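Here comes my example:
=====
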Amino acid sequence: MKKTTVLGAGSWGTTLALQLARNQHEVRLWEYRPEVAQVLAETRRNDPFLPGIPIPNSITISADLEALVADADLIAFVVPSSAVRSVAHQLNRCEMKSPIIVNAAKGIEIDSLLRMSEVLKEELPGRFHPRIATLSGPSHAEEVSRNIPTTIVAASENPEIAAEVQATFMSPTLRIYTNRDIVGVELAGSLKNVIAIATGICDGLGFGDNTKGALLTRGLAEISRLGVAMGANPLTFAGLSGMGDLITTCMSRHSRNRYVGEQIGKGRKLAEILDEMVMVAEGVKTTRSAHQLRQKMNIDMPITEKVYDVLFNNEDPKTAVASLMERDPKSEIE
């Protein structure tokens, strides 16, 4: 049994806390707002994010970060990608042992263009660096929390740490594979959200399965192009964190990013859509980061660029689709 702390009481953070509790670990769940932490602790429910799922009394819920991490064997970051740096900065001020650090956020930091494990390395002392891993893959919290069979990846440059994370979270309904390619796993998990927005736009425009099949395939091609240029293993993008997560996010009604795209395809404005959402659609910020990263690496990513233009340059979605279709002829395999 490990002493584990989950940072972030959203849908995925609560779900991972439930998973650890089912595996008989000691679990603490950190919610940064004291008043919300108190409600969660008293009601044992997190209905805004995970309706209908009870939180067992064995999970300690608190806003006292220092108390929750002091003797932790494993700390999981399950906050929005935009908050990873600030939370890691707070964590660095706490007295701790040498826990395994698990990143479960999917995103690329704007401006720095760092992956989440790289952000953690910048904010945490060097003794933590070999103990960092990332959990990623096709895993909607709504399904994992209800013990629907799910398979994901634990990635780390240190295979022993990946294996320990695998053993800690794995259960009869959550199967976990290990992968040493943390670069590819993190890029795939982040960039698929951009393609999910594109898929949602096509749903909103009323396009069919042909369009969606093309988007997923060509979207994966441009994600792979960028990933390989950044040192990732191309096989990673054919795996769970690549193709698996891409298919799930683009096809599912649970997907917040697909939902954002669908609403834009129906003619709504981005600000209006985001204002009414309780949960975070990571793909919106990731689109900015991907646009910057594509320019920096000089990689051809036409779908990503058109999503950027629709979201931030007010390009009409139908015009964006037409411009993608009317590009110069190319070979499929470059």
